[in-house]
């Protein structure tokens, strides 16, 4: 590994945002945004609108019609994998241990993808952590203004009180996602829930899935197909700022026939971004411990749960100073795989994450930021070439894998 130190002045950029959200200007461009209840975030669809914006300069598509098609995609995925009633995931979660559940095709494809990445990452990505996510206070019900404790393990103020260790231990026993069985017959799709449960306080708990992250990436992948079919060449689609599909920059100078964006990756421990990555015609994903989190007695507890310990990453009892990977980004795989992979990288820890990037992501671009609490030092690890990125903060060490 090659190590060097970046010495650049910082500039303010949003987390995984386009360098300038208005760069598609020139009077022919629009920007729409939609608040999606399940994703609880904004979707940005920004496409250049004049004839030169399309492939081969010979096609036109109505911006609003394409946007409506994109919204339909988001709605379809939402209705399949959200935790609301009557979705495929909610039916699976409500099923008894060992029960066969009919799911829709979208959920089936997501289950398959999730299983593949679960195996590929040796369980570092695990969507079967539903009860642990809930235990730590990161399920949608905790966002409600009228939240009230409803389970024996609930606390009055989840962001101020830690859960009892006995529930962490119990819920870890029902997280083996490899036990989920999938099959299809006669054009219908099914998932068999693992025949395992745990009883606490006279309540039987079975495996609970949370496909929110990978579902968001899958929605971006499906929406990108719609946009590509409409022949758009310039612009971007962003869902929540952490799952994006980039096309090309309409105003950038051409380099070898490509017009690149500059993408800033947010600094989880400060304002602005710590690196800017040059990218175009690519999907990108990011995970970090800086959005959904709370702090108790100086410890940061985030929504990314380590499936080995049942604790939020970098907040395990054996890691008292909180050292670890605090954000990860991947460019060049599908958004669904990217969302799952960035979560897995944060869980793996530094050595395993470096090995995974070198062995499994050689055809993509990846980076993560590691915080060494003892030395109070940040280090970025990446497989990118020096020409692909620019460091934006002073004296952050970079290790090129």
Q: What structural category characterises the helix and strand content?
A: alpha+beta
Low-confidence stretches are: 1-38
Shape: globular
Radius of gyration: 21 Å
The count of strands amounts to 21
Helix percent reads: 10-25%
Task: Give the mean pLDDT.
Answer: 85
Order of helices and strands: EEEEHHEHHHEEEEHEEEEEEEEHHEEEE
Residue share in β-strands: 25-35%
Please give the count of helices. 8
Strands across the major sheet, in which order?
Answer: 1-21-19-18-17-14-11-10-4-3
Q: What composes the largest sheet?
A: 10 strands, mixed
Termini gap: 5 Å
Describe the 3D structure.
The protein is an alpha+beta fold and 401 residues long. The chain contains 8 helices and 21 strands. The protein has helices at residues 63-81, 88-94, 105-120, 130-135, 165-172, 212-229, 335-348, 350-360; strands at 2-6, 17-18, 29-36, 41-48, 100-103, 181-185, 188-192, 197-200, 203-206, 235-239, 243-246, 261-266, 273-279, 282-288, 293-296, 299-302, 324-331, 365-372, 377-382, 389-391, 396-400.
Keywords, separated by commas or semicolons:
single chain, disordered N terminus, 8 helices, 401 residues
Quick recap:
The chain contains 8 helices and 21 strands. It has 401 residues and is an alpha+beta fold.
Write the layout of secondary structure elements.
Blueprint (H helix, E strand, L loop, with lengths): L1 E5 L10 E2 L10 E8 L4 E8 L14 H19 L6 H7 L5 E4 L1 H16 L9 H6 L29 H8 L8 E5 L2 E5 L4 E4 L2 E4 L5 H18 L5 E5 L3 E4 L14 E6 L6 E7 L2 E7 L4 E4 L2 E4 L21 E8 L3 H14 L1 H11 L4 E8 L4 E6 L6 E3 L4 E5 L1
Parallel strand pairs: 19-21
Antiparallel strand pairs: 1-21, 2-12, 3-4, 4-10, 5-7, 6-7, 8-9, 10-11, 11-14, 12-13, 13-20, 14-17, 15-16, 17-18, 18-19
